[in-house]
Amino acid sequence: MKILVAVKRVVDHNVRVRIRADGTGVDTANTRMAMNPFDETAVEEAVRLREAGDASEVVAVTVGDAGSEEVLRTALAFGADRALRVDSEAPLEPLAVSKALAAVAGREQPDLVLMGKQAIDDDSNQVGQMLACHLGWGQATFACDVALADGELHVVREVDGGKRTLAVALPAVVTTELELNEPRYIKLPSLMKAKRQAIERLGLAELGVDATPRLELLGVSEPLPREAGGERVDSVAALVDRLRNEAGVI
Amino acid sequence: MGSDGAEREALAYDVVVVGGGPAGLATALHLVQQGGGAPPSVCVLEKGAAIGAHLLSGAVVDPLGLDELLPDWRQRAAPVGVPAGPEAFRYLTGRRAWTLPTPPQMDSHGHYVGSLGELGQWLAQVAEAAGVEIYPGFPAAEVLYDERGAVCGVATPDQGRQADGSPGPAFEPGVEIRARQTVLAEGAHGSLTQAVIRRFDLRREAQPQTYGLGLKELWEVPPERHEPGRVEHTVGWPLDTFTYGGGFLYHLDERRVAVGLVVGLDYENPYLSPFEELQRLKTHPAIRPLLEGGRRVGYGARLLPEGGWQSLPRLSFPGGVLVGDAAGFVNVPRIKGIHTALKSGMLAAEAVQAALAEGRGEADDLGQRVEQGWLRTELYPVRNIRPAFRWGLLPGLAYAAAETYLLRGRAPWTLGHEPDCRQLRPAARSRPIAYPEPDGRLTFDRLSSLLLAGTSHEEGQPCHLVLLDPEIPTRVNWAVYGGPETRYCPAAVYSYEPDAQGRQRLRIEAINCLHCKACEIKDPAQNIRWEVPQGGDGPGYQGM
Known about the structure:
Radius of gyration of chain B: 22 Å
CATH architecture of chain A: 3-Layer(aba) Sandwich
CATH architecture of the largest domain in chain B: 3-Layer(bba) Sandwich
Order of helices and strands of chain A: EEEHEHEHEHEEEEHEH
CATH class of the largest domain in chain B: Alpha Beta
Shape of chain A: globular
Number of helices of chain A: 6
Oligomer: heterodimer
Number of strands of chain B: 24
CATH topology of the largest domain in chain B: FAD/NAD(P)-binding domain
Structural class of chain A: alpha/beta
Distance between the termini of chain B: 38 Å
Number of domains of chain A: 1
Strand order of the largest sheet of chain A: 9-8-7-10-6-1-4-5-11
CATH superfamily of chain A: HUPs
Radius of gyration of chain A: 21 Å
CATH class of chain A: Alpha Beta
Structural class of chain B: alpha+beta
């Protein structure tokens, strides 16, 4: 089985983001970037499947500018065999990303595409689903457990109020939850090796992808500051009493 | 082999540099810049998750260091900031600000007001392009010694140990980086630096190192109050006249203003809280109007070495050298250490290169190279100014003026230092200080400040702040000094809570730590050991 893992470079989750003064988005100049944490679980799972003998090759792919090769190096250090980048200076909308990934899947012919269920920067949660649609493949989103059995993938999904297990025929697209695994620590020797590995580059035009934006960004603003206040109550009973009788919310 | 016998992988380089700050990056870059034969293989380890994440400085940069390291830095558009000027030096009382003549050391003409973090990121890019390998997120936690006792590299810490020290499910042992020369560029009071100084007795002929704690906030101010390049220093209020220190206000580009305070850690009153002194400083009528209506966007704290020339340890040891703040190359009256860090790195690179070429195990001519260049002519004449301030602010200023204008640094004496940890007075003989409550707009508490420092430590790992004797905080720190760590720590790491018997026990929130190292210096019983946490942990400074 060959696995394609899609990863995205986002602002590191420990960074407190700042909005650009003109309100056109988040300031990413000089900001620490990292691999989207959901994608880390996807890479980790792909590498584990290969280590378990269920997969033969793991290929990491990202769509972005030259700087985003940094997350491909991270994927290689995790244990991906190869990496390729679809070049795009401008950040793309989910539809365009899904088309680019579909074109890459067309060339690479993977049996499974793994990716995070969403990226922590725009929280769109769309690319995996759209990709499955372009490819005409089955999909299992929000995976918190993945196992290969008799040529099918058994995927446990996080759903409201519990878990649901699906059997998906391959090829398929699976998007991952953080609960799926605990990504390994990257080893320094692996990172040193990853720095020397070649990264294949593909152009959007070469892949025949129309990346024309279809959305217009009207503005980005910070949430309103929270009203100061709040007080500590002595017991749960007191809390319930005040919520019921004072606030009238329950 | 690791401490508990786990097999560790080993990698070999000609030179390993510990710390990706200005001194370490200058050493690494200058090593590969020098002509003559194949450049050495150089690896830089940095404990921050990114270059710059642990860098904090004012910063007013004297370009002298860059001029020598990268003479074409202007063409390469190095992010040094905006040209400095106008400038002011003011003495504050509670309500008034008196403008004093700017001491010549503080003349910022030809300097730049910028961010050391941004300069460090750029230097790292230049060094990488020149062939240096740089690995942020990988600290050095241990010095390796060869069979003859010389340093032969460092090891990164294990990852994935649990709180009790046992290996967790994702455990990954550290890696040994073996090198012919090890450059310690950890900044002020580095952990490996301290170990090496002790082992080779490098301080034998030097005074103890003393430190200041620098705290800084980054603000975005309304454009009409922003004067790019403006440099202001203050002395006096809110500190008392026997506490060495001073404030700074630097106007960077893009409406940014750095406001900060440096407090000498030889202060005596255990009730003093450098963090709250900075909060008070901002409420001064001469400062408040600048910040009001602005927005605080950054916060951080770091030690700076203040011992000066007489506190420089021996700079070389078998298998390695010390550079930058790890050695103590700060010009204290100028409050500048970036240009000296760059220069000390360059001299170290030249000494290391020569030692490698000649097959010598110790770059033992580094001290001589420093003696012969401008580091000495800059640092030696001002060596007595900082220690004179132990007589108080006004005598200190008077002595500084006499040294500067009359003696011109040629005084036949050199003033010594006492270690900072011995300076605290018992709480019973000290006056409590009542600090005002923060208002949440101009003044803040520590926890909301930490959010802006972006500090994080993976939970579940062994605590990286270790008490050598867990009873001492209750018996000494609390009973005698009233728990000074709850005040000097700028990161709310330390607090006291009564146990079941009603005895005050020290509680350590190591995840808040800003890696400033103040506790290792100021703890009166020298009972706190700062160990290297997992890679990438610690502050996530941006533009600091």
